[in-house]
Amino acid sequence: MASDPQRKQGRAAALPGAGPYTLRPLLHDVPLSADGNDEDVKINCVDYYDGNLYVGTSASELLHFFRIPPDPSDPSGPATFILASRLPPVYSEPAGGIQGSRPGVQQILLLPRVGKACVLCNWTVTFYSLPELSPVFGATQVRNCNWIGGVDLNEGVGQGMSRSGNEKAPGVTILLSLNRRIQVVRIGEEDARVIRKIDFAGSTLSVRRDSIACVADSRSYALLDVDRQLKIPLMSISSLDDSQPDGAFGQAQNIAGAAEGGLSRSASSATARAPANALGHSRSTSLGDFISGMRRNDRRPGEPDDPVFQDSDAPPPSRSPAPTDKPLPAPPREAENYLAAQAAPAAPRAASPAAPPPRIATPPVQTATTPAPAATHAAQTATPPVRTTPPPKPGSVFLKPHIVSPTAEEFLLVTGTGPLDPGIGMFVNLDGDPTRPTLEFDRYPREIAVDGGATDLSTSRLSLAAEEEGYVLASMAKEFEDGLHHGLEIQRFDVNIGEDEPEKWWLEVKDSAPKGLSPSTPIGIRPLLQSEEILFEDVVDRLCQRRFSPFKGQPETPTMSLKSSDSRTALSLQRLSQEKELFDQSDDEKLPPDWEEQRNQEGEDFVRRLARTSSRLAVWAGSHIWWAVRNPLLTQLDSALELAAASPGQQTNPGALEIRRPLLSLLNTIKDREATTELEFMTLGYIRQKASVMLLMSFLSSPEPPFTEPETRAMEENLVSGDLDARVVLSLIPALRNEIVVNRRGIWIYNGVRSTVNSYISAEADGFPMQGVSSLPSHVLQFLRRFLSAWRKKKGFGSIPDEVFRTVDASLLLVLLELDQDTPSGQTGKRGSARKELYELVDHGVDCFDRAVDILETYHRLFVLSRLYQHRKMAADVLATWRRIIEGEEDRGGELGDGEQRVRSYLSNISNQALVQEYGLWLARRNPKLGVQVFTDEKGKAPKFEHTRVIALLREEAPDAVKYYLEHLVFDKGNTSYVNELITYYLDIVITDLQASAASRDNVAASYDTYRALSPPKPTYLRFLTDNAPPSDEVWQSRLRLLQLLGGGHDYDASAIRQRIEDSLSALPASSPPQLAELDGNTPTDHQHLLVPEFIILAARAGQHAAALRLLVHRLGDYDTAVSYCLRGAAALTPSGTHYRDQPHQRRDTDAEPPPRWTRDEQTRLFRALLGEFLALRDGDERAAQTGALLERFGGWFDVVEVLGLLPEEWPVEVVGEFLVAALRRLVCERREAMVERALSGVENLRVGWEFVGVVEEKGAVVEEGATEGAAAVVVGQGE
């Protein structure tokens, strides 16, 4: 109901409950008259304390009702009030009073601190005890009283110490507004005494804070210091009243009546004339400055206490105030603009003449000895003098004053120009200075009340509320199209609205009143002395948790047929039924039969403890009384949601802007609001959930995407942050409803949200065929994609049951699969794409594993299924899924790529040897070379296989892969024990190809012819063969490896291999070329023509060097290899000798010994044989060239004479010129070397002889005498 009814004429009342206040029954059908004829009787005032309700009527009766609490078995039931007594208060008929003008009971003032009540009835005050209303103080009366009140609002109700911390007062101080003065009266338990008299005549209203009272007479407001008797005149009640002197406003005046300060009295109040030495008065001089900040609650020293009924000698008042219930005077016919009136309040205004206010007689002051109530009227024989007010100027209007105190330092005063014109509320502090921006009332109010604020401790608020909001409630009448309506205008007073128009609410009683109460019935309002606790059952109903069933009609399982147009839906239904049975069996928790009812009751009790509020505002109209209760935040916000749902476009266009904009605005308003109480926390969560659900229903019901991207994002954010169970959201989408998983305890959500969702689900047409996810539009799928992805981030929260994430994962998987159908086959997807998110979903694991497997199988997404298995470490299932894809089963994503290579890599990362063996053999059957890598992987995690076992397995399961494994053993591991077997495999491949294909034979022969045709210098034939062999041709590659093994010096049976080649190729047709005629009686066979390099190596291995040279020279034309063979022997045929090291598997095992090299004699013999082969070449030019080159390079191995004997006589000498020159040089060199050698030998002989002579001379001769006499021997070199 956040609307201004004055701007929307014709709309008398907005949606109930939308404003900050609502009405709750306090007492209906009050018996206003004893005889039941209460048509002319009305309620004047109401008060309440300690279960006792007091109602004053215009029939001069005080009704006392006693409250009976609700039945303990039904704590939410209403309380009952019974009539305890009907008291006619004693009053005195004022002299000169108008017959029949008695207003009745005008005020009820309860003073629980002293157990007394003051009642103002027909301008007579009487005193009673509480709560039974027995007369006290000897039936004391105070006549001619206009107002009773002025109780210090800073003192707590019923407390013995004031809020300012003063000592306990002996009683309660009140103010009695008599015609000629204000009496300050202290009410005690035993008596009531006047402690002070204030010379302020004609006051009709007073509100007090500490010693400062804000009072009003019939024309103006003023501030009084009741202790020091100081006054600050304030503004006039009516802006049209210019009878007040402008200079008096805001000036502090002494009204104590001292002799030194003269008093100048106006028609409304006395204004002090300052002496010559007194301080000058100005607007800045406030009451607080005048009294130097000192305020006292005690009277001045020496002032005697007077009985409350003592007569006064003061002059009579200038006028009598109008009764509070008198009708307001008629306003001017045409009032000028209100802003102009506020700018110039004293300016005269042109207005039509108005009827002057009625003359009000001033009742006499009661004497000290008041007669008994029965003799009151008889005792009145004299009429005291009565002064009437001067006739008002034409156009002046008397308005009822209104004073309330919203805070401990402020008063709110209301001014205006007329009863039908707007009113202005002005805030002043205790010094009379303005404090806040003014308030504007659409009409001058009949009554006002404030509720809340920073310092109001007894407001109508919810329990445990934090910072309290402050409201002003004004009773007034407004014109609508259907007539005059009385109601309450409500607005905040504690906010600064700036230049914006203030927000106002309009509240009427017709929606809360029984039938028969007219909207034109005046409404009264006032704060009561004590508040009452009230329970909001509608809040309990909305916030309590209730079990929610996502299926239409709340079936245990979906009731639709499993035969659906979408096979995936049928699988979902079947799975749901099976899972429910499984969960019911596996759920170990034993639930009592009445567990649901018990939980419902516990939830209601919990919310009831929070959904209580207290109120102290009473509203009455006719014979009915209500509590004006602060509306809970939930009710206000929920009403706004219902208003949006009731929009006219809801049926025609559910996604219309006028529907979603209020919802989004409301969500944005509470987005950053921090909850300060538990109830507020629940309220904000409830509103977020319900508003988000309503947005989603609008989003889903629109035929096309109506929401903008920011609006959609806002809806998603609130759905996630509102903590609404994701299964509730999915229940709104029939295509995903059957993915919801529910345990035995069910889904529990706010009852208000449940009702909204159930209404949407129940609106679906009966028999509506269930459609699959493929039927959802793109914008819904994109919404679900983001929403469900955001929900998955909550995994790990202990407060969320596992069933939620199982539902979320299954639904998200379905949505992503639908969105991914447009992705081209084979692509892995870019970042942010549906396929990438699909991979991330399965790679991080899903809680609904079995359901995910079914979904992926249904969508034929086997590769995604394999990734799901990988997350679960289910290696066997991963490999089995890949095998299905590789063997041709449909995989619509096509993401596997090179499946065999992926299998091979995956096998190296698992430790299960059995799986490695199974899929290694399977891979070897499909791709032998790749499959063998599984068994040869050195970095694999599985235990290593024995070589013999692998060979046996491969021979049995994948024979084609044996060769590759043997290659690994021989070439990579250097295991020569398998060389013979590997050579056999290579021979089988080569020979089988030659036997089966004539083209292969021709290609082999053509390679020889091509090589021979090359011009020198040319590479060796093995290098030529390596460079020109097709890399993808298995036969050629096998032949290269065969040559590598044959020439590698391995220990193998060369004769057996030669025999096998001869036997295998002997049946081939002869194709001996003519150039290979008989040479030395040997004619090459056909198998030698085809496998020339092999036979050369085998011949060298068998010592048939001449045959090897013959094949090298005549068949291959590889002259360089022939020369190298003469120098190095068989080593020239090895890979190192033919630059074969560039080929794979080049490793040589240490067990393979290199072929032996020749001695000098063997080399000479081979060179002579090679010379013979060169001389046998048929091409003369080539013969001469190769012979000359051989003799030139290696002439040292040849005898010149022998060579000259072999050379044809017709060859020119140039052919062997270099050889002959080198030979002659060699002969000359040898001769000269011999001469030098002989000379050196002679020199050596001379040196030795000289050394001998020198030794002899050094030693001298030695003569030895022998045994024969006369004989002597000379020994040279011996000593003396």
Automatic annotation (TrEMBL):
Q: Where in the cell is it found?
A: Cytoplasm
Q: Can you tell me which residues the record assigns to a coiled coil?
A: none
Q: Name where it mostly resides.
A: cytoplasm
- Is NADP there in the keyword field? no
One GO cellular component this record assigns the protein to is:
membrane
Q: Which InterPro entries match?
A: CNH_dom (IPR001180), Vam6/VPS39/TRAP1 (IPR032914)
Extent of Pro residues compositional bias: 314-332
Protein transport: present as a keyword of the record?
yes
Instruction: Provide ranges: composition bias, Basic and acidic residues.
Output: 1139-1151
Q: Where is the composition biased (Low complexity)?
A: 266-278, 340-353, 362-386
Tell me the domain of life: Eukaryota
Annotated CNH domain residues: 40-500
> What segment(s) does the record annotate as region Disordered?
266-397, 581-602, 1136-1158
Q: Which Gene Ontology BP terms does the record give?
A: autophagy; endosomal vesicle fusion; protein transport
- Keywords per UniProt: Cytoplasm, Protein transport, Transport
Q: PANTHER family attached here?
A: CNH DOMAIN CONTAINING, TRANSFORMING GROWTH FACTOR-BETA RECEPTOR-ASSOCIATED PROTEIN 1
Q: Which protein are we looking at? A: CNH domain-containing protein
Q: Which organism is it from?
A: Thermothielavioides terrestris (strain ATCC 38088 / NRRL 8126)
**Upper lineage:** Eukaryota, Fungi, Dikarya, Ascomycota, Pezizomycotina
